Amino acid sequence: MKLALISPYYTNQPSGANIRFESIAESCGRILGDDLIVVTCKGNKVKGEGRVLYIPNSINSGIFGRVLVYVWLSVFQLYCVAKGIRVITDFNPVILSQFFSSTQFQLIHDARAFSKFGRWGNKERIVMTFLWKKIKKIITVSHSSKESFVKHLEIPSNRVIVSYNGVDTTLPIQSSVKDIDILYVSTFEYRKNHIQLLKALLLVETSLKVVFVGYDNGEKYRIDEFLAENEIIHKIEFLSGVTKEELQILYSKTKLFVFPSLYEGFGMPLIEAASNGVRVLCSNLPVFEELMNDSATYFDPNDFHDIARCIKRGLCSIFERDVAFDLSPFDWDEISSSLLIDIGLLKNR
Residue 202 falls within a domain, yes or no? Predict the structure, then answer.
């Protein structure tokens, strides 16, 4: 039995969604070989075994381009129904075949649509909620997101499959020099809460080296304005376009990883930091507590005084460890095998 793994949004740029797509494709390719079909836009390279089909690279070309992709995928997914090929896709709006096929699975990375941090306006959210409610199967990346889908879509819990994101579990790069006091890896957008972290840093009297890694998603100017309006004693560095190997080096040089986000569907940088032995301070979000358990120190992301207290305490006890982090749930090969079992392509071990 075959699997088609579809993402018209995939690019070779580093992001949580892109890393998941290429990692699942690579791991499933080792398991399924030529029974895996990877479907993405022209111009992107996907590692691993399996066949690759390229669809028109028009996903960002306005309404006409999106309609072209929709039509192409509609025909392809009907073909998959006829041939008994299972489908995992992250394309929205939902393809009609998913309303009647229980072998076509919609991957939704988070339940942000039901929060104030959603990408869509009210009309779009109403339409997407209606479509998601009608499809047979949803895959999401955390139990916290699953609870949101079950609640807001009013659907049975067995219609939502949880498949964690993972990390590269090969040996991390080790560095004897820890010259980065605080590292934060995220896009620059409102929900990532950079301003509260900067306010907290105003309360830290010792000069620190703070590194922000990520691309601008519309909010970087607010950070620049804040820095211009306030006297910051810390050395602050902004990096973008960082490769996976360069990011590993940054983690290896870091004392504290601080993640003050207001909303996440998962939080892959947390797992990356913890897997590299970096002490983690993060928001007290249910999804973070689900992933990190007792292996992190939690703060209220809306209270910069609380963030500052945790940073000061973390820097004073940098060589103390929280509870050891369990990496086993975040191995891509194990995640892929479990996913193939959940969608009926492999037998339960």
Answer: yes
Say what the pLDDT of residue 60 is: 67
The list of the chain residues with pLDDT below 70 reads 14, 48, 58-61, 171-175, 318-323, 349
Q: Assess whether 161 and 184 both reside in one domain.
A: no
Q: What is the pLDDT of residue 95?
A: 95
Dihedral of the CA atoms 264, 266, 272, 273 (nearest 10)? 40
In angstroms, how far is CA 104 from the centroid of its own chain?
A: 22
Decide if 305 contacts 338 (C-beta within 8 A).
Answer: no
Task: Record the pTM.
Answer: 0.92
Residue 191 shares a structural domain with residue 119: no
Task: Write out the residue range of the structural domain in which residue 299 sits.
Answer: 180-328
pLDDT value of residue 11: 77
* Residues 47 and 61 sit within 8 Å (Cβ to Cβ): no
Number of domains present in the structure of the chain: 2
Residues 12 and 73 in one domain: yes
Q: What is the pLDDT of residue 10?
A: 85
The DSSP line for 34-64 is GGEEEEEETT----SSSEEEEE-S-TTSHHH
pLDDT digits (tens, 9 = 90+) for 87-115: 999 999 999 999 999 999 999 999 999 99
From residue 62, alpha-carbon distances to 101, 272, 305 in Å are: 29, 35, 44
- The two three-digit tokens of residue 75, written as one number: 């025909």
DSSP 3-state assignment of 71? helix
Q: Which amino acid is at 37?
A: I
The reply to whether 249 and 264 lie within a common domain is yes
Reported as half-sphere exposure (CB side, CA atoms, 13 A), residue 334 has a value of 11
CB atoms within 10 A of CB 102: 13
